[in-house]
UniProtKB/TrEMBL annotation:
A GO CC term attached to the entry: cytosol
GO biological process terms, semicolon-separated: proteolysis
EC number assigned by the record: 3.4.21.26
Reactions listed under catalytic activity: Hydrolysis of Pro-|-Xaa >> Ala-|-Xaa in oligopeptides
InterPro entries in UniProt: AB_hydrolase_fold (IPR029058), Pept_S9_AS (IPR002471), Pept_S9A_N (IPR023302), Peptidase_S9_cat (IPR001375), Peptidase_S9A (IPR002470), Prolyl_oligopep/macrocyclase (IPR051167)
A GO molecular function held by the record: serine-type endopeptidase activity
UniProt keyword annotation of Ribosomal protein present: no
Domain Peptidase S9A N-terminal: 6-395
Top-level taxonomy: Bacteria, Bacillati, Actinomycetota, Actinomycetes, Streptosporangiales
Protein family membership: Belongs to the peptidase S9A family.
Domain Peptidase S9 prolyl oligopeptidase catalytic: 451-663
Protein name, as recorded: prolyl oligopeptidase
Biological source species: Planomonospora parontospora
Amino acid sequence: MIYPPAERQPVTDLLHGHAVPDPYRWLEDPASPRTRSWSAAQEDLWRAHAAALPGRDRWHARVAGLCSAGTVTPPLWRGERRFFLRHEAGREHPVLYTAGPDGAEEPLVDPGALDPSGLTVLDRWQPDLTGRLLAYQLSRGGDERSELRVMDVGARRTVDGPIDRCRYAPVAWLPDGKAFFYVRDRRVCLHRLGTPAADDVVICAEERSYGLGSSHDGRWLTVSAPAGAGNDVWLADLAASPPERPGLRVVQEGAGAVTVPAVGRDGRLYLLTTLDAPTGRLCVADPADPGPGGWRELVGPDPEAVISDFAVLDGPCRPVLLVGRTRHAISEIGVHDAATGERLGGVPLPGLGTAGRMSARPEGGCEVWFSYTDGVTPGSVHRYDARTGRTSLWAAAPGAVDVPELESRQIVYASADGTPVRMVVLARPGTGPRPAILYGYGGFGIPLTPSYSAYILPWVEAGGVFALAQVRGGGEEGAAWHRDGMLERKQNSIDDFTAAAERLIADGWTTAGMLAACGESNGGLLAGAAITQRPELFAAAVCSAPLLDMVRYELSGLGPSWRGEYGSAEDPEQLGHLLGYSPYHRVREGVDYPATLLASFGGDSRVDPMHARKMCAALQHATSGDRPVLLRHEEGVGHGARAAGRAAWLAADMLAFLAAHTGLEAPPPER
């Protein structure tokens, strides 16, 4: 394949004694004529290749068909009014609905109606404590730089905003509904309705990725912000201090642990924490004395299950605590005595899958709602009633789909250092090596748990194997699992991933000539590192929205906020670790690299598309084989949510590319 020419310039940085070459630095500037010309030529190359991919339209038809299951979210209650999202077949985006006591559903925010082009996305929303007002955030073109507006729910009219620079801003309403705390430009602010945003009082001026919460009655404000491997947390009693100067008291600072606080209806401060418990525990404290010295353990840690959520039920039933855990990435919900923490039983779940966060009525009650999904079950909403101990289906996925028969196996294998790692393998019944995709993430403490995927199912249905490696850096086994895959230990994540590839080959699931590596965002870094360190293990790879230049990642996008996860090139020791695995810097001339597709997005304000551009140029120059290295760039979308049609084509292109280069036949035409 003849690639567009890309000049290798003699650019070398001397960093802490390291000579760091960067021959494609010029590709960092998307506006330069040279970059634009090169990018246009790469797009032409990709389009020609994509047009020739066998069965590309059939992959798209099957992905789109399985996407028609749609989604629905648990209700968020405000009195007798509930709010929820539903995404139905034929719509490009989910619609936010509300329903009153009579159950009649009414649409509140429909991004498709607001923008028929499909480029506008509803990023976040939060009703006030009465359900009378709704703060909601919209962004356009994938940049996630939301504008916040306030709607009068009854009148369906905008009463405040827009307020710009509110990227996924959390909102905590005051009880009177006349003001709210929110995050703008990474600072906590107080906004009073009807006043200019420029006049908003800044509550926390240091730029951080803040989280906000409030108690059911709005009296207590909680503020949190990431700090290294944990977070810092503060609590304010708004009944004892003015909102403009909330008396924030330290709950936790510099502890190296993650703590999620919430003041319950019973007046206790609940703390879901990894402090002194890598898999988490639930503590309680007096809000007047919120520091760790006053914490009392209510539900202790389970060494093999990670606490992920809790809810308090205290209506006309015995007061109980529901504690959500993931045991080796499979969800379970325990029922505990609210006073003593003693385990009383468990919440029946529909299967071995993933239960989402629990939603209960703020004013109390005996019911809780949660989403559920697994490999063959589209997301649905279930309700648990503590009075009967039963779980029932509350809202099914809006669309009906036929899913293929498949088998799921959990395999435990040894990584390079002997650490046991788990991998879930999905396949149709049968034996013998088959084309396979190995997928991983391994970062930020985020677990890979079972879920319905219109991307995975077509591959398995066509006869392929799909494996999800639950590598270190993720959250599958708790805080220690995360720490063992971050900063100076990031190589563990890559070793876990390549060991998974070796196990798939050794067990006869696939061969190196039929195996693909795949990942997105931090997972794109994982896949990129795997193919540069162990190219002989893989026939193909897809890196979507990837981080690949780990020396300069912190200079663009949200890179500065990820220093706690990866480290900084400004630190001599951390630079050495980054250079050790940075995929862009590991590319070597004369290596037969796998067929590689790099996907980037013009509106991506998290991961700069320059990573994909520079890696593409480096691999195209270096590879000694005839397997293609291609760049698929898409304007008008970003790192996160996008129109359903665009998402289906992205998935179809990735599957068609991987199938063509691992030997999997496309699905048969739809009948």
